Amino acid sequence: MLTLASDVEVLARFGRALADPIRCRILLAVLKAPAYPSDLADTLGISRTRLSNHLACLRDCGLVVTVPDGRRTLYELADPRLGHALDDLRTAVVAVETDRTCAETDEKGCC
Fold first, then answer.
1. Where in this chain does the record put each HTH arsR-type domain (predicted)?
2. Distance (Å, rounded) from C-alpha 30 to C-alpha 77?
């Protein structure tokens, strides 16, 4: 049975997906245009195995979907609104001072 995630769960999933630079690069790539894994691996300069793991995470988070294309599988954003959200987040964060860094969280989850 399919249940809807709470707002907090949805944002947490989105945050986990965006927490990794490779997943961010994948999302920005498929934001431009749907892509095949082999092309994404070449474009991003990572192994297909590593890419596969990140794509699985993005699928599990509900951010990308697969589209069968003959013997190949195309990846695209799960919803066009995600593209708008990514653009909004990207431009909002650009307004932050470039000499500031985002601190890693400690074991308590605090910055």
1. 4-100
2. 6
At 16-40, the pLDDT tens digits run 999 999 999 999 999 999 999 999 9
**Residue 3 resides in a domain:** no
**Report field, pTM of the whole predicted structure over 0.85:** no
Q: Is the residue at 49 inside a domain?
A: yes
Q: Quick one: tokens of 1?
A: 């049975």
Render pLDDT for 41-56 as a digit per residue (tens, 0 to 9).
999 999 999 999 999 9
Q: Domain of 45?
A: 17-89
Provide the number of structural domains found in the chain.
1
CATH of the domain at 22: 1.10.10.10
Triad 46, 56, 102: Cα angle to 5°: 70
